[in-house]
């Protein structure tokens, strides 16, 4: 039995939801990660500092007593976000990023930005104050093929944006293509990306293996094998621009197993274990700690954690479902073995 101790990691992109759903899932993230960048796509969206403060309180209140977990809050960018709100967000001390959802791109993105030029005043203030822009990088237009949406967005929106605001700190979130890897690797300083476990473990065949598999549907959608290979090389390559972000996105079972199922995969129950599997398969376990625990903190200008977690190279089988508010959710790999487990936590 092999074990591996690493400095405590952080999750730089997670959906914790709200209310009873929040209470059901937050522990999975808090058990593993010291901090997490919490997505603001609630309904209604977290569009102001006041709403973010209230949401943060609800997250903290839902943690088990004694849990040391710091939710890093984000603001949801809209056409109407004012430079003043950006200044307030930067000054408040608990907001770490402003999230750009192109309107219509994904779950609860209807209040998102309809045309990037509408956000220029807010982006200019973010560039000034050092507030980070977190990007869902997809063009949601009907005439752009769903598999090309990330590439289209990078070329038509992101590349010009990064040039127009040369000091703006940008995280291209949950990247899925070799094009995104190349763009981020070659971009000016201040541009980084997060990578999810599912995009490292699967290509798009997983969505159609033996039938249609709604629990492998997330956005941006899984891509080709050559894209997965590029993501793997980026994650395990030691480049500090690429770091961990699970994009764990729980939905009630019925909302996924439906004639029009929601996008999002729940991975928080194995949020670090799955990356250990990936890095082991790549023969690069020695680089898991920098990807999971160093590069994100460094990019955000936050201290690395001094405490550690221990992972044990021993299979465990997650349950086929977890309670989720009044319903249930189907976790990634439920009923199937995962090669690494968290010491002292086991099968939660
Ligand atoms: C996310 C969700 O469900 O909130 N879904 C997903 O497929 N990743 C939204 C998002 O991050 O796109
Ligand atoms: Zn997400």
Please specify the SSE layout and strand pairing.
Elements: E1 3-7, E2 11-14, H1 19-32, E3 35-38, H2 49-61, E4 70-76, H3 83-92, E5 95-100, H4 120-129, E6 132-135, H5 149-164, E7 170-172, H6 178-186, E8 191-195, H7 197-201, H8 225-236, E9 242-244, H9 253-256, H10 273-281, H11 288-300, E10 308-312, E11 322-324, E12 327-329, E13 341-342
Parallel strand pairs: 2-3, 3-4, 4-5, 5-6, 6-7, 7-8, 8-9
Antiparallel strand pairs: 1-10, 10-13, 11-12
Bound molecules: N-carbamoyl-L-aspartate (NCD) and zinc ion.
Zinc ion binds next to loops.
Q: Features of this protein?
A:
about 350 residues; alpha/beta; TIM Barrel; eight-stranded parallel β-sheet; three-stranded antiparallel β-sheet; 11 helices; about 35% helix; binds N-carbamoyl-L-aspartate; binds zinc ion
What does this structure look like?
The protein is of the alpha/beta class and 348 residues long. The protein has eleven helices and 13 strands. An eight-stranded parallel beta sheet has the order 2-3-4-5-6-7-8-9. It has a three-stranded antiparallel beta sheet with strand order 1-10-13, covered by helices on one side. Strand 3 (35-38), helix 2 (49-61) and strand 4 form a beta-alpha-beta unit. The structure holds N-carbamoyl-L-aspartate (NCD) and zinc ion. The site of zinc ion has 5 residues, from loops.
